[in-house]
Amino acid sequence: MNKKIFYLIFAIIIVFFIVLSAVFLYNKLDSKAFPEENTNENIAEKQIEEKDKLINKKVEVKAGKVYCELMEEAGVAYSEAIEIYEEGKDKYDLSQVRAGRFLDLYFDKSNVLQKLKYKINSEEELIVEKNNQTDISTSSTSTSRPKWNIEVKEIPYEVREALDGGSIETSMYEAAINNGLDDETIIELADAFQWTIDFAMETQKGDSFKLFYEKRYLDGEYVMPGRILAAQYMSGEKKYEIYYYEESEENQGYFNEKGESAQKMFLKAPVSYKYISSGYTQGPRYLAKFKMFTSTHMAIDYAAAIGTPIRSVGDGVITSAGWSSVGYGYITAIKHNSTYTTRYAHQSKIIVSPGQKVKQGQIIGYVGSTGLSTGPHLHFEMIKNGIKINPLNEKLPASKSISEENMENFFNFIKPLQEKLNS
Ligand SMILES: [Zn+2]
After folding, report:
1. Looking at the chain, which terminus has fewer C-beta neighbours within 10 angstroms, N or C?
2. Order of strands, edge to edge, in the sheet holding 148-154?
3. pTM above threshold 0.70
4. Which runs of E-coded beta strand occur in 236-376?
């Protein structure tokens, strides 16, 4: 009698386990058969903020898609998307969201939007949060109360300092990548040195560099470089040093070890290093395509894709801009002062006109292959007192120095940085 009950209970337990493992196996098979039920490739779902129990959807802004479409695709009602837009447009106009950025949406368990974050630029983000407080005391006016708290806030990066460096085998780009630097850091470094060295043209095998800089982190993850605080570049006997220093509101930027501004009258190159560093160029192969200044070719040719922006190397006035009858194609000439003129040839498009004033770094046109040209490139000439010269050899005075009374402060400021770079 007791035995029968015992066997019955035993059988029930066995059956229970068989059913349990069958269910478990079925679920496993099922998840293998359908690995991802991703119905919309724009939406990458990720569950974070466990404590708030909100579900995060990061929606990439795709070219040609507008804010409301993106919100609807993510499951937000059109009326609600419009409501947020209307309430927030004084702070940030959401119709201006840029391709490549993300709408960071947070939903509660019943799929109701609670929060939206959008990175406006590298420094600021828009934060939209649902106003869940109900105002009981003033029931008559409660309808006019905003449904969303909308703010533009500074992105709360955690900043860590780092010392990195490397030496050049083939190109600056390759050297930097091989030493764990990312594209953005290389471009920052090139920008800091843009009046001093042309990383595309002037670097040679055996040169070395070091940089002490800020790295920005969010939630413990590296996001991007911050400011380059100090850097040095060594080429043979020559050593170039730059330090970021703020003497006053008006005088801040990079200075060399003597307190002279690193900012000069001319940029080293008419094409920003960011268009040359990576991507289509593939470093060394690209560098081989540069045509250097020789006695027969009194200019520098920058091989670059058609449409690459061309910048004026210095402040000046456009003296001519248009078609050349002698093979230069579309060419622009800029007079910088009574001594110097620069010319930019074979352009695909000119966007300035004679008489116009331009600033250093201003885009004046785009790389092309017009006129007598064998392929897309920028033919860049510098003319000094009517004679073509090699811009890379030209020594130019520094624009501004640290004032005498602040010199000691400056030297004290850079001393520990110098020690770091020389360590
Ligand atoms: Zn040329």
Report:
1. N
2. 43-46, 55-60, 102-107, 113-119, 124-130, 148-154
3. yes
4. 238-246, 252-255, 300-303, 309-311, 316-323, 330-335, 340-350, 357-358, 363-367
> Domain locations in the chain?
43-133+142-154, 157-264+397-423, 266-396
Residue 237 Cα to ligand 1 middle (Å): 30
Tokens of 204: 């040679």
Q: CATH classification of 43-133+142-154, choosing from 1.10.260.40, 3.10.450.350, 3.30.450.40, 3.40.50.720?
A: 3.10.450.350
Radius of gyration of the chain, Cα coordinates, nearest whole angstrom: 30
Q: Residue 19 — very low, low, confident or very high, per pLDDT cuts 50/70/90?
A: low
Same topology for domains 43-133+142-154 and 266-396, yes or no? no
In Å, how far are 143, 343, 388 from 383, measured between CA atoms? 69, 8, 4
C-alpha of residue 329 to centroid of ligand 1, in Å: 12
- Cα dihedral across residues 340, 346, 352, 358: positive or negative: negative
Residue 340 C-alpha to ligand 1 middle, in angstroms? 19
Q: Phi, psi at residue 280, to the nearest 5°? A: -60, -20
> Residue 342: how many CB atoms within 10 A of its CB?
21
Asked if 387 contacts 340 with a C-beta cutoff of 8 angstroms, the reply is: no
**Spatial separation of the C-alpha atoms in residues 319 and 46, rounded to whole Å:** 56
Which pLDDT value is given to residue 63?
A: 85
CATH of region 157-264+397-423: 3.10.450.350
Mark 38-69 as b/e (b = at least 16 C-beta within 10 Å).
Answer: eeeebbeeeeeeeeeebbbbbbebeeeeebbe
pLDDT tens digits along 259-274: 999 989 999 999 988 8
Amino acid, single-letter form, for residue 64: G
Tell me which amino acid residue 211 is: L
What spacing in Å lies between the alpha carbon of 197 and ligand 1's midpoint? Answer: 21
The domain defined by 266-396 carries CATH number 2.70.70.10: yes
> What does the alpha-carbon distance between residue 48 and residue 245 come to, in Å, rounded to a whole number?
40
Residue type, position 231, single letter: A
State the pLDDT at residue 171: 82
Centroid of ligand 1 to alpha carbon of 380 (angstroms)? 7
Whether residue 273 contacts residue 302, with contact meaning beta carbons closer than 8 Å, is answered with: no
What's the CA-to-centroid distance between 233 and ligand 1, angstroms? 28
C-beta separation of 270 from 251 below 8 A: no
